[in-house]
Amino acid sequence: MIFQIYFFAIYLRENTGVIVNIYGKNSDLIVDRQAEIQYMIHLAQFHISPSIVLTFNNGFIYEYLPGSPVSNGDEEKASHLNHIPWLKITGDINKIEKIIDDKSSQWSNLSNVLFDIINHFIEYAGSNNEEPDYDNTYPQCDKQKQWLEIYLSNALFLNDKFEKQMTIDELCDSGDCLRAPIHLYWSLL
């Protein structure tokens, strides 16, 4: 398994908790884990990343931050980016790109929720063997449905603004269609 994320909340007040991220065997071949932690520590200073609570040999614990999906109006909030002297910092950007180009950062961009869920299921097969064991470890449809029911019943992003437009069966069917593109995506990185 590349990684597992276990979520549990310690409710001191609403929307608080921690997330335990446990790396799977060989996941460091795909993601630079030390850099990931350093990025999070640095970004947390600016309140744009959760704070790391604890690190250990094969993972870390970080604070849970409630969030919301990006919406079309969010670009207005980011209008301050228009004032950045982009031409003056191009050289710096090129240096940074060369430094980080060799490693993947799994949290670096917006992703489709169903893509993330199916990717999570694919990771059950693991990367600890030369040949991942999809036959025995990829969750069967009934397990996927059970997982989706629990996930969607707790998904804070599915608030009053969003309707559940697909049934669990439709989500599973759509998810099966994403398996090949997800494999292609990771093979191209």
Helix amount, in percent?
40-55%
Round the mean pLDDT to the nearest integer and report it.
75
Summing up helix and strand content along with how strands pair, one would put the structural category as: alpha+beta
Instruction: List the helices and strands in order.
Output: EEHEEHHHHHH
Q: In terms of per-residue confidence, which ranges show pLDDT below 50 for 5 or more consecutive residues?
A: 1-11
Distance between the termini: 18 Å
Q: Describe the biggest sheet?
A: 4 strands, antiparallel
Radius of gyration: 19 Å
Biggest sheet strand line-up: 1-2-4-3
Q: How many separate structural domains?
A: 2
Number of DSSP helices? 7
Counting DSSP E segments of at least 2 residues, the number of strands comes to 4
The share of residues in extended strands comes to: 5-15%
Shape, principal axes of CA atoms:
globular
Tell me what you see in this structure:
This protein is an alpha+beta fold and 189 residues long. It folds into 2 domains: 1-68 and 98-108; 110-189, no CATH class. The chain has 7 helices and 4 strands, in the order ββαββαααααα. It has a 4-stranded antiparallel sheet, covered by helices on one side. Helix 4 (113-122) packs across helix 7 (168-188) and helix 6 packs across helix 7 (168-188). The protein is globular, with a radius of gyration of 19 Å.
